[in-house]
Amino acid sequence: MALMSLKEARAATPLFAALIALWEARRPATDRPPGRDGLSPAELMRYLPLLAMAERDPDGSVRLAWAGTGIKERLGGDPSGRALEDLLGPGTETAFAMIAEDGVPVGLADGRTVGGTDVRALLLPLAGAGGAIDAALVAVAW
Known about the structure:
By secondary structure, this protein is of the alpha+beta class.
């Protein structure tokens, strides 16, 4: 997948723009992302069908912890427990490593297609209890 700048991701879809604004509003400091509990389910409720949570496993791989109903329906099943690359295609583990290091959201485009539609994604880094970035809220646009 090709990387999109934050500006490009913001312009890609209204979904991405809204989620980036929410993520930025919940940052505890300009150089750190919000914690996993920094975004409330109530705030995310309207976006949940197109969201997933990606987590880094102890072995360094990145897996989906859960996925919204819109993602499940589009894929024809639940991708939970599968590698992030299974959902978004090659290169997404590299994008996850970038957000884990930089703490800045990354947009992804020009990757795989699902049902004949190009998949675009937004990875929003989230900090764990110890402050390390070990998860990402993933938004998917078809």
